[in-house]
Amino acid sequence: MITLIGRExxxxxxxxxxxxxxxxxxxxKIHPDKxxxxxxxxxxxxxxxxVTEMPKRKIIADYIDANNLKRGTFIHPSAVIDKTAAxxxxxxxxxxxxxxYQCTIGKDVILGPYSMVSHLAxxxxxxxxxxxxxxxxxxxxxxxxxxxIRATFVDIIEICDNVRIGAGSIVxxxxxxxxxxxxxxxxxxxxx
Length: 192
Known about the structure:
Layout: E1 2-5, H1 11-22, E2 27-30, H2 32-36, E3 45-48, H3 54-66, E4 70-71, E5 74-75, E6 80-81, E7 86-87, E8 92-93, E9 98-99, E10 104-105, E11 110-111, E12 116-117, E13 122-123, E14 128-129, E15 134-135, E16 140-141, E17 146-147, E18 152-153, E19 158-159, E20 163-165, E21 170-171, E22 179-183, E23 186-188
Parallel strand pairs: 1-2, 1-3, 3-4, 5-8, 6-9, 7-10, 8-11, 9-12, 10-13, 11-14, 12-15, 13-16, 14-17, 15-18, 16-19, 17-20, 18-21, 20-22
Antiparallel strand pairs: 22-23
């Protein structure tokens, strides 16, 4: 049984549950607060679908580690995964996504439908890539980043931890400061 840790009525949680269920795997949902209160079946395999607050996503992942719980991994049957790619536990690879030559998808990563991770790229733990994200070869995306729908990353750049990229943004340079970036080319948003 895979249990999704997320808000029961959230679109992402329900989309993921539907994808898993349609593939013939039994799925359950639990709210993060109930999960962190210990109200779960410890024999389940867990995938974190909660993305509202990335720091809380990390707290949930740390709880899984501290309690030696098993992470589930789901790769949609329509996804294309190169045999040299590494997909770590707790990850969800959505429909029609592609993960190519020697890519690494870290623990607890969500790769939305129609996304592509090109050769030698990596996505670190806890990052969420919304649908149609394109990551070019040799690019490294840090931990607990949130990549907006249709965000695009050029070759051989690095994105530090805790970065948010706006929908449709094109990232052409390395980002070494956490924050919110958007536009073409992506620039750090002015905080108000």
